[in-house]
Design a protein that fits this description.
five-stranded mixed beta sheet, alpha+beta, 5 helices, 24% strand, Sulfate adenylyltransferase, single chain, 165 residues
C-alpha cells in the first residue's frame, strides 16, 4: 500500500481522468492525438524525485528520459512507442502536463551520449553527471526486480515534447 486511503487513490484517479478529458476537449475534432494510447505516471521512484523531474519537464529543460528494459518487462510486455501520451504526475499523483513521445531508441547504458544526457535535463546536464546519477538510480531500483546494474544494461531512451498544460 502506498500510504493513500482508498478515497484518496480514487480522487487521484478522478483527477487524472478529468485532466485527460480537458485535454481531449482542447483538441480539434479530427486530431489523431484523441485516439493515441496514453498512460499516467510520475518520473522517478519517490515523490520527491517525481516533483523534481516534473518541474524540469515544465521548465522545458527535460525533454528526454530513459528506463531499463527489465523495468518494462517486470510491468508487462508493452513498451513506449512514438505517439504515446503520458500524463506527467507530481509526487502526490496530481496531473501537471501531457507529453508526447517523439522518439524511442534502445541502447546500452554505456552507449548513452552527451546529447541525450543533456536532453534529460538533470544536474549539470553533462554525460558524467548523467552516468553517476543514473548508475545510483539503477543500483537502487534494479535489485527490487532481482537484477543488478552493469554498464551494458539495456535501456529504452525516449524523447518527448509537452503538448498540454
Amino acid at each position: 500500500m502506498d500510504g493513500q486511503t482508498p478515497h484518496a487513490a480514487c480522487t487521484a484517479d478522478e483527477l487524472v481522468k478529468a485532466y485527460y478529458a480537458a485535454f481531449l476537449r482542447s483538441l480539434p475534432p479530427d486530431s489523431p492525438q484523441a485516439a493515441a494510447p496514453w498512460v499516467a505516471e510520475a518520473f522517478g521512484d519517490s515523490p520527491a524525485l517525481a516533483d523534481e523531474l516534473a518541474a524540469l519537464v515544465l521548465e522545458g529543460r527535460k525533454t528526454a528520459t530513459c528506463s531499463a528494459v527489465c523495468e518494462w518487462e517486470a510491468e508487462g510486455d508493452w513498451r513506449p512507442t512514438v505517439g504515446l501520451l503520458t500524463i506527467v504526475l507530481d509526487g502526490r499523483g496530481t496531473p501537471l502536463c501531457i507529453i508526447e513521445t517523439t522518439e524511442v531508441t534502445y541502447r546500452r547504458f554505456d552507449e548513452v551520449d552527451a546529447q541525450f544526457a543533456y536532453d534529460e535535463g538533470e544536474d549539470d546536464r553533462s554525460l558524467s553527471s548523467w552516468r553517476t546519477g543514473h548508475e545510483r538510480y539503477f543500483t537502487c531500483v534494479l535489485p527490487k526486480l532481482g537484477k543488478a546494474f552493469s554498464p551494458d544494461l539495456p535501456l529504452i531512451c525516449e524523447r518527448f515534447r509537452v503538448i498540454y498544460r
